[in-house]
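Exercise 7. Predict the joint structure of the components listed below.
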Amino acid sequence: MTLVTEKRAPRAHNESRKIRGKVHLREHLMGWLFVGPFGVVFLAFLIAPLGYALYLSLFQKKLIGGTSFVLFDNYVKAFTDPSFLSGAWFVIRFSLVSIPLQIVIALALALILDAVTTLFARFSRLMIFLPYAIPTVIGAVMWGFLYSKGFGPLTDIFGLFGATAPDFLSSDLIFYGLLNVVTWQWAGYYMIILYAALQGVDPTLYEAARMDGAGRWQVATRIKIPLIAPALILILVFSLIGTLQFFNEPQILRFLAAGTIGSDFTPNMYAYQQAFSLANFNYGSAISFALGGIVFICVYAFLFFTRKRRSFL
Amino acid sequence: MKTKRLLATVAMLAAGSGLVACSSDEGGSDASNCTNSITKKDLPVVTMWGWYPNTQLVVDNFNKQNNEVQVCWTNVGQGSDEYDKFQTAISAGTGAPDVIMVEADRIPTFQIQGALVDIKKYGFDAVKANYSDGAWKDVSVGDAVYGVPVDGGPVAMIYRKDIFDKYKITPPKTWAEYEQAAQKVKDAGGPLFGDLGANVSALTMALQIQKGATPFIYDPAQPKAIGVKLNDQPSKDVLDYWGGLAKKGLVGTQDQFTPEYISGVINGNYATYISAAWAPGYLTGAGVGKGQDTGKFAVAPLPQWDAANPVQVNWGGSAFSVTKQAKKPDLAAKVAYGLYADKESLTDGWTNQIIFPLNLTALKDPAFIDLKVAFFNGQQANKEVYVPAADAYKGVSYAPFGQYYLDAMTKQISEVIKGSVTGSQAADRLQEDVAKYAKEQGFTVQ
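Solution:
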């Protein structure tokens, strides 16, 4: 068929192709012009550093003997390094607890604020979001002081009941101490995303559901949550990536709890220590890439499973 | 529409100014962002990093007295904060200051990377006589000199007189007595007797050396070979001893230099504070020894393992080194030799117990020796405790990978505090860890 058509009108086709080509070129140019500034920044500040880090990770620099090409030795070392593995295991465990907790809190708050429309709800919305407006570093410093046994409020509060305050900076409780800081910081942010998604839902659906005899609970679980599932998945991916790269909070609290939070507490902190305090940029880069691999696998696995589950919702 | 464009413009301006701010900030190597203000503006400027509590005064003194060069000072953080930044600047090949304050135990770490300048040819002979041979040895690697000594850190036992009086104890002379006294205070319902801080591994190392440990045997003439002995009996004994005190609840396990610890010292939560001669300067700077706390502190010699054969040790103490990135090393060396070497600066340092001077003009000054230290309620601390301790100090050979060693030690001490390992086990693990690292770095470990 195609052959025939081409034979029948070869000139016209060519001409239209030429014109189309010109238009295409112009469109292309315009496209590139728009993408250009972003592309330059993207290449300069993301791709180039990534490439350089990958290049660095293939070498090994020794105090004695200088630098040598070792191919994947640094990666082999990373995946047999107890410091890296224990850090990776910690962030995975932390993700498994902290992400569901944050999402459940954020979802509950978003549903409540969506259902209640008073001035108080608007005020609450702002207050719940506020912790996110505080830089993580400052938030961590603040919680470090709140946890303090010496002058934090915990001692006084527990003292009222004649009990001793838990030390959230001790090695037994640091997990929960960090969990609290992270949840406090991020739940409000996720709540806003979910709340915004809820605002986008067509209200006539609720009316229809109510006419069918659905209660508030049913509206929430059968209509609202399924409809904002994409937003839920989005924040789950965000929080998964963020938590696996855990750095700011433990790095800041480390000053107050150096014994509890070691320099290899999370993989990112370990990479930082290797690069900036031990001058081992090669191994630091390898750890970062290894972490990147773990993040990729976790996110991919998550998206893979949620894709299936979404059809049930 | 208008608002949008306005917003976009504002955002672009903000982004632009952010970039400008980044480009002008070169981490202190730039002479335009000094903490101090330079009045003699036409002179060449040497940049310097340091964190003594009275650096501002020291730098001003130097700049006032000098007509050849001016110092531009930045405090980029205390201890490992500064070292991390310096390490990054070394790796980057740019961004380091001309002159840097370093503790003696870190000099080999930076020297082995070729980051420091041998300052022997820049006027060493003129100032050689100002310091003892031992002081020069601590800042030398082989025959080369990599720093100008400023202060030492003879370790002693700072204690709360009010607590000792209340529980009727006298300063313990041995570590056995220290434990007994701690038990006595605890039994009487008193406060903790001391503190085992995971973040002060350099102090633990000093205490191990006191018992007879030699953590590292390193001869820069043979830079490839290093002796690592972190689990010999003395090392184990000291970790077991402190681990035991912590387990029995006789000492606390708080990180030191943190607000938590300092507030504990102010509140009298610790009867003793095993620390160096420079500690009072940091304590007063943080508010200790002021207000209700005034006059409660005293100092006694460091408890001994064998009272008949006392051993004195050192913690911290620092020097000014010239970095390889200095554009005019001769001028930088002038600054290194001259900073904190004039009488006024030194006197301020030792009257406020900020430094324990290594400069002999200060060390031999009767005013220094006989000083009635205000922090210690008029006690002649130098004469009674610190000068004899400094005189008896024998010197140590430090590792060329000090940062790794101290980090690894911090990790093991925190395991001991947790109770997951004994002190001996921690020492074995540390040995394994550090020896492995040394091998990875290309050393042959003996």
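Discussion. Chain A has 14 helices and two strands.
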